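Appendix B. One record, verbatim.
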Amino acid sequence: MKKYDNFASALATLRLSSEQDLSNEFVQGGIIAKFSLQFELSWKLMKELLKFEGDRTASTGSPREIIKAAYQYYDWMDESIWLEMLRDRNDTTHIYDAALVEKLISSIINRYIPEFERFDTEVRRRYADIL
């Protein structure tokens, strides 16, 4: 499945975040951009998987609706983290304060990447036959 392949490829790159010079503004911007892309690929993959499950939300759902619907199918998802990711992704274009950037980078590395990895593991387990 192409959407999964794109998701997995982007995650492989995002995983490298903690190995970078986190004090470098360009690196920080790159990590935030990669996070935004990863989030986008994630909810679109969720949408595709919800179609497979026959859920109607997949036809017209916004990212928030898709996350909420996916949470009904996937008990291993931490809905609160996904909704925080959505908020942070929406706020990334308005981050000008260095302290907020550092806080976001910390959240990406310590909370969001592990959640993307859990999503990856569980999707591969549940949908191995269609990926």
